[in-house]
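Quick note —
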Amino acid sequence: MSPVRRCSRTACGRPAVATLTYVYADSTAVLGPLATYAEPHCYDLCAEHSERLTAPRGWEVVRLSDPSAPTRPSGDDLEALANAVREAARPQDRADGTRDRGPRTADPMEVGRRGHLRVLRSPES
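Predicted structure written out below.
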């Protein structure tokens, strides 16, 4: 048995690059990246068949991945993340000029927070 999954279309032996799933309740065909495992009610498609995919009349096709989109984070994304971490690490000044005495949570390792990002104190300090 070949470790490469093949296109589910009849007489097509090309390698699969996308997985098609139907959501019957919403009349939607969802085309996304190749699933990790072959599922019984999903269809693996090659690049050509995934590009030419059409849905029945009245149905919507949702494409979850864009082949032209970068698969790795860009330098701008990484720089923005680093800037957010640096900003969260800076002590926040209150309006009356006093510094924040500590985190709002019970976690003694947490030094600062911004949204869902947390700055943690190293265990040795």
